[in-house]
Specification:
Elements: E1 6-9, E2 13-17, H1 21-28, E3 32-37, E4 51-57, H2 66-81, E5 86-90, H3 95-107, H4 114-124, H5 132-141
Helix pairs in contact: 2-3, 2-5, 3-4
Pfam family, one: DSPc
InterPro entries: Dual-sp_phosphatase_cat-dom (IPR000340), Prot-tyrosine_phosphatase-like (IPR029021), Tyr_Pase_AS (IPR016130), Tyr_Pase_dom (IPR000387)
Protein name: Protein tyrosine phosphatase
């Protein structure tokens, strides 16, 4: 099976779409899944030892999403800093996932500007497509980036 997911931080933080999570769990032995889908009804991987955390971000939200993006970024960063292997995903691994990827890179200090973080996320996972309202959320969270 070809790998469709990507490593944001080698060996520690993975990202992709919902259909990638079972493979990430099986191959990478992740411990935490951060599910960004508002529409989710459960973990996209069947593994009883996985910690599943849902941050209900809408793909085409009509209300401000910055607080939820902050929660998602912090969930990933917290798991990483706790020494856990973590994966995060939305439906297709493009918009919400790309936004969180850029935020994680900023939060960890691996990128200094929002443009740099967005470009880095897209370089790692070419399907990343941060929508204008998602970028606006990042601008609110990282006004100096």
């Amino acid at each position: 099976m070809q790998k469709q997911y990507h490593e944001l931080i080698a060996g520690r933080i993975y990202f992709g779409g919902a259909s990638d999570i079972q493979q990430i769990a099986d191959v990478e032995h992740i411990e935490v899944v951060v599910d960004l889908r508002e529409e989710s009804t459960g973990c996209a991987a069947s593994n009883p030892v996985l910690i599943w955390q849902q941050i209900p971000l809408g793909d085409n939200a009509d209300q401000p999403q910055a607080p939820l993006f902050k929660d998602a970024i912090q969930a990933v960063v917290s798991a990483y800093r706790d020494g856990k292997k973590v994966a995060f995903h939305c439906g297709g691994g493009k918009g919400r996932t790309g936004t969180v990827a850029a935020g994680v890179l900023l939060e960890l200090g691996l990128c200094r500007t929002l443009d740099e973080a967005a470009a880095a996320a897209k370089t790692i996972r070419p399907v990343v497509n941060i929508k204008p309202d998602q970028r606006e959320a990042l601008e609110q969270l990282y006004p100096n980036a």
